[in-house]
């Protein structure tokens, strides 16, 4: 028996990093997905086949009971450790510790790009393996297990990435709880720098800065929380879409400046942000942990101009849509 599950990538529209300190954030699932097949194996081993994970040069082999990374290709090893934890957590939940599980992964989501590739692979693995064991988990239960996986692998996590990936749609999230927002079709362009950042390291860097200078850093984190509250009001208000986009764009630009101030932007990200604004985007900001990865621009009527501008400064544009569907058994 083989079970196939999938889960989407996400973008954080507002509130990354400050969400780790209990502030709210707004995020959406997008239409790139990771697919995971799960089956039992006779060897009582965890086997992970991940030929399609978009990290060049990865080779992974297996000992009897353990995954063994032939070489430590940083990012890929990090992704696979989410998969391993996800399998182990579901096995514990199902009380089936000796069972051998093989998972096979294929993904449309670039790794380390700030689009939640690790959360999506963890959520899809939890979906597939739990179904294999006959557990019927709700998306919320999958999200909780996904958060556990992130805490084990990363040390710190707000839980927003696995929650959006498991539940789908457009969410307002704070301290483990979420509220579904009406899906606003945002004319956006995601720009990938082609470089990646480690969420674990960036979260640790912000924490260090906060510990070193709480009087300077805490007001920035507080402001990020206020940006999110204003964004939520605007999303829920009865404005026409032109006014809505203009106000949201302004908040995106403020949020980007605050993320730069806490130390998670890079020249590559800022180049894409400024090129997008110059090409007509109303707003542009980092999405996700930063340190490389992706930004997104809000560009009503200007999506192709912004995509071209991103390409000219060396980025990779992606025109994506919000996905209403979270984790799914295929
Ligand atoms: C990463 O996508 C979002 C961060 O806020 C980390 C987290 O919330 O766990 C940087």
UniProtKB/TrEMBL annotation:
Q: Which residues cross the membrane?
A: none
Q: In which pathway does it act?
A: Isoprenoid biosynthesis; isopentenyl diphosphate biosynthesis via mevalonate pathway; isopentenyl diphosphate from (R)-mevalonate: step 1/3
Q: Name the Gene3D superfamilies on file.
A: 3.30.230.10, GHMP kinase, C-terminal domain
Q: How does it assemble?
A: Homodimer.
Q: Which PANTHER family does the UniProt record give?
A: MEVALONATE KINASE
Molecular function terms from GO: ATP binding; magnesium ion binding; mevalonate kinase activity
Enumerate the Pfam families for this protein.
Answer: GHMP_kinases_C, GHMP_kinases_N
Gene Ontology BP terms: isopentenyl diphosphate biosynthetic process, mevalonate pathway
For this entry, the protein name equals Mevalonate kinase
NCBIfam families from the entry? mevalon_kin, PRK03926.1
Q: What class of enzyme is it?
A: transferase
Where found? Cytoplasm
What species was this sequence derived from? Answer: Palaeococcus pacificus DY20341
Q: Which family does it belong to?
A: Belongs to the GHMP kinase family. Mevalonate kinase subfamily.
């Amino acid at each position: 028996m083989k079970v196939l599950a999938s889960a989407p990538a996400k973008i954080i529209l507002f509130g990354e990093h400050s969400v780790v300190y209990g502030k709210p954030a707004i995020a959406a699932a997008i239409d790139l997905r990771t697919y995971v097949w799960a089956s039992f194996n006779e060897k009582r081993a965890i086997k992970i086949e991940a030929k399609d994970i978009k990290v060049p040069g990865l080779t992974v082999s297996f000992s009897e009971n353990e995954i063994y990374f032939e070489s430590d290709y940083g990012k890929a090893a990090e992704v696979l450790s989410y998969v391993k934890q996800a399998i182990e957590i579901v096995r514990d939940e199902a009380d089936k510790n000796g069972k051998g599980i093989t998972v096979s992964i294929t993904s449309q989501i670039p790794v380390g790009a700030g689009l939640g590739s690790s959360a999506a692979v963890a959520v899809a693995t939890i979906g597939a393996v739990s179904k294999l064991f006959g557990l019927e988990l709700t998306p919320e239960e999958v999200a909780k297990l996904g958060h556990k996986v992130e805490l084990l692998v990363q040390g710190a996590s707000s839980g927003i990435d696995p929650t959006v990936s498991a539940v789908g749609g457009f969410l307002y999230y704070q301290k483990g709880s979420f509220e579904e927002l009406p899906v606003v079709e945002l004319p956006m362009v995601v720009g990938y720098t082609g470089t990646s950042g480690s969420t674990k390291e960036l979260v640790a860097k912000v924490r260090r800065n906060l510990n070193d200078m709480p009087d300077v850093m805490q007001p920035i984190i507080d402001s990020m929380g206020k940006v999110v509250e204003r964004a939520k009001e605007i999303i829920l208000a009865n404005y026409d879409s032109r006014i809505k986009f203009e106000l949201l764009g302004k908040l995106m630009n403020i949020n980007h400046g605050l993320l730069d101030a806490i130390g998670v932007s890079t020249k590559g990200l800022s180049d894409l942000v400024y090129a997008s604004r110059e090409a007509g985007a109303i707003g542009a900001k980092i999405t996700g942990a930063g340190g490389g990865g992706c930004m997104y621009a809000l560009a009503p009527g200007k999506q192709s101009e912004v995509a071209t501008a991103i390409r000219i400064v060396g980025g990779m544009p992606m025109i994506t849509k919000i996905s209403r569907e979270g984790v799914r058994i295929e």
